[in-house]
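My current task is to audit a protein record that another person submitted. What it holds is a sequence and that sequence's fold in token form. Thanks in advance; the entry in question is below.
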Amino acid sequence: MPEIDPLPLAQLTTLRTGGAPERMIDALTRDELVTVLRDVWASGDDWLVLGGGSNLLVGDEPFEGTVVRVRSAGVERLAAPEPGIARLRVQAGHAWDDLVAQSVAWGLSGIEGMSGIPGTVGAAPVQNVGAYGQEIADTLVAVELIDETTGEVVEVPAGELGLGFRTSVLKHHYGSVPARRAVILTVTLDLADIGTAPRPLTSDRLRQALPVAAGAELSLAEVRDLVLQTRRAKGMVLDEADPDTRSAGSFFQNPIVSEQFARSLPDACPRWPMESTREPVIVIPLAAYDGYVPRAAPRNVQYKLSAAWLIENAGIRKGMRLGRSRAFVSSKHALALTNREDGTAAEVAELARFVQQRVAADFGIELQPEPVLVGVEL
């Protein structure tokens, strides 16, 4: 378990902020990760687990504790649970997009719409990553994790992780602590084994986002290429030559609001119901029918809003910055905040607060940050 000379976290995070920690350890295997975490937890030191660093905003002061870098990698094909399904167990430190590329090459479907998402496989279930109608909750079977409270290694079924829209019981939400403090060691997925030949694209979200004509047939490799092209156009694929990719991706979560609140917003504001809005079908046995059809119980359907639309329509233009700050709104996508010129975490946080204040003033919605904030307050 090599302890290395601590590197500034600005060199290890995609937002390029953060000082050097007191101590840094590379865990190259699952077993090393278990041992390192048990030792760090026993010491009582503050700690931070670092994968790809793509979902972090780290403060400018040195981190007073130990940073554990998860460097484990590898994909194992397990026995198929049923015909047409491939089961994979993946190490937590494996690059997410490398897994997507491998699954596409094997003809396995279920995560191709999440091509180009940065970070590691172990981080993906924590915030239930997703894109273009797919999310990891759709294919996740279980995670193997080590619990901070007990130090025990356990396998937890996906159904016990509280997976929701960009959330789980493992996620550190801004202003709160995770419901369960643990670190993922391996991830098990079930993917559909459909082969590499072109097939009809059945996902409406993918077809609309790419876009492709109804009835079009695409191979998984062609879908992946189109997704990568779409994400690159938004500055959402890491590229050293593109300063707009020096970000944490979407900085703010798309808000979830009640149907009543959604109706109060301008008609042009995009919104998507979080469940079907169709009236439920009431089935009454003929023998029990007395001429009266009961009314369906009222439902409070929640709606997801477009944070990007709210930001742009609160007067925040793409590419803007505050004064001479080195933090910018992406020139390609209003939802991303970028650190184009070696700025500080304080500058990024100042811009984030400005965006929050403008959206709150115009629409009465407080945008919540999506990245984990370490040593930073908004």
Remarks:
- Helices lie at 30-43, 96-105, 204-209, 220-233, 259-263, 307-312, 345-363.
